[in-house]
Sequence to fold (330 residues):
Amino acid sequence: MMLNHIQMRRESKSFTDAAYAILTAAGRFDGPKYMLSGLSGMAFKFAAHRMLLPHSVTAYGQWGTEHSPGIDNLGLYTVYDAGRSRHNSFGSYQQDAVNWVRQSIDSGMGAVYWIPEFGVIHGYDDEAEIFYLQDGSAAGTQVLLYDNFGINFTSFWYCRIFGDQVSIPLEDAVLESLRLALYDWETPYKTLPDQEIASGRLAYQYVIKALKQGDYDAGGAGYLLASYLYSRTEIRDYLQEVQWRLPGLDEVLRLYRELTEITGPEITAVLPALSKGLKLPESQQASLCKVFKQAEALEERAMALVLLISGRYPDRKRSLVPRWGAHTAR
Fold:
């Protein structure tokens, strides 16, 4: 069983790339990728390790709590499971996940799967007991044994599928995406008690400090900076598309336009060296720090405006406590 119409392309965050490939192929999303990235809030996520290690890009928090609100904002029914492969119960969860992933593919929907990074399961063969995977970086297909489902060098596993969809008014979805962005900006640590990875405004300080001290992983820094620039470009394009939906968004758009204009040339200039694993000369590091300070100030102003815009409308999700109380995600 193969869903050959699914074609993942690595451009944005890998979760966004995987979800976009699945949802567009199934007719659940119609629009450019930056719209999905913006509406889901994924574009606004920014995390950085103290040494700018490459896993910074996907270490933006606990994936269940990070991804689910964004998928909910698209009006999609979704199911996921995740955990540590070292747990004694892993074998049971593994067998169960193999079954519901197969059922999802039978219904015409692929699955988001941590390879790592995130990729797409788009087919299976029961006789050979294998899944077919795409990671988006090449046109080819990878093979995953059912017995190896969830096993990888990171020691944790993750898989998500999608179902039916309800319609959410675009104005409501845009407003919720801004509130998700604000939460990301104001939450310094999402992987507590570990404080090696910072989120939101604090991530800027981690980047600046690492560059100043010269204590960073060059390849990881290149990946982080490229992802940062792409995501901020997505935010700009998203706001350009939806600015007329809410009063005040035009000014937020102006700030993100300025941000991409000042960071784009600077980041583009250093990527060739970083991608080769070469650290930057002190002059380039200092220049990049200066630009990131300016970008942080611009995004701070943008988020202050987002807070004002959000405050004009009721927020039932955050002002009402569910009858079963509040829960901490596992």
Summary: Residues 7 and 21 are 6 Å apart (CA to CA). The chain has two domains: 1-30+76-165, 33-61+169-315. The two ends are 33 Å apart (CA to CA).
